[in-house]
Amino acid sequence: MSAPRQVGAGTLWLAGWLLLAPAVGARAEPPPEAGGRVVDRVVAVVEGQVLTLSELRFEARVALVQRGGVQALEAPLDEDTLRGALELIINQRLQVLNADRLQAFPAEPTEVQARLVAFQARVGGEAALRRFLAAHDVSQEELEGVLARGLRAERILDSRIRLRAQVGETEVRRHYEQHVNEYPADYESVRAAIREKLVRERYGALAAEELAQVRASAQVRRVAPFTREARR
Question: Which pTM was predicted?
């Protein structure tokens, strides 16, 4: 039995990042310039590509909204959240850069459009989406680019580990027997749930290993002080 695709695409970002740790914290974002205008500055350089603070904030909010954190549309994002988002963005960009070199894993326009429609629904409709984009001085096309990159990164990682994340009947049965006290129902009743649990756990471990390999040979430089704290 192959793993359901949602096991990969829906949970893989939980493998190695802290993005879903508190979406909004007590500490505010890095301070804006007097008068309310955000000072844009470089926070990291990924394989020669510059990532600015405004891009980090925007992409962090997009990722959080996709994962249910609608409050991230307007609430301040603390430094822990931004550091977690940075790790997500770095991993996405590295995977997509590698795929670009091979001209592999393109994002189909219909798939990107589907993600855009889902994102618009999450933020509260077309008018809310326009306000969100205007607040960040970002076009819809730029948002679609972010969504496409996320889609491609998920697909790339999923293609590499989905088959290896499979668990056999023997493993499911062994887990049940070793944890029988945790399952009041009979084996057949909990079999599917156990299989999903084991696949998720294995998928997460494999995802972390795969991404560590991608990062090992990559040229990544964190520039902003709050981003460098993640390396300690």
Answer: 0.79
Buried b (16+ CB within 10 A) or exposed e, 183-192: beeeeeebbe
- The sign one gets for the Cα dihedral 94, 146, 119, 102 is negative
pLDDT in tens, 62-93: 999 998 888 888 888 999 999 999 999 999 99
Query: Distance from CA of residue 156 to its chain's centroid?
Result: 13
- CATH topology assigned to domain 5-231: Triger factor/SurA peptide-binding fold (1.10.4030)
**In this structure, what is the dihedral angle of CA atoms 40, 72, 157, 9, given to the nearest 10 degrees?**
-160
Domain boundaries, given as residue ranges, for the chain: 5-231
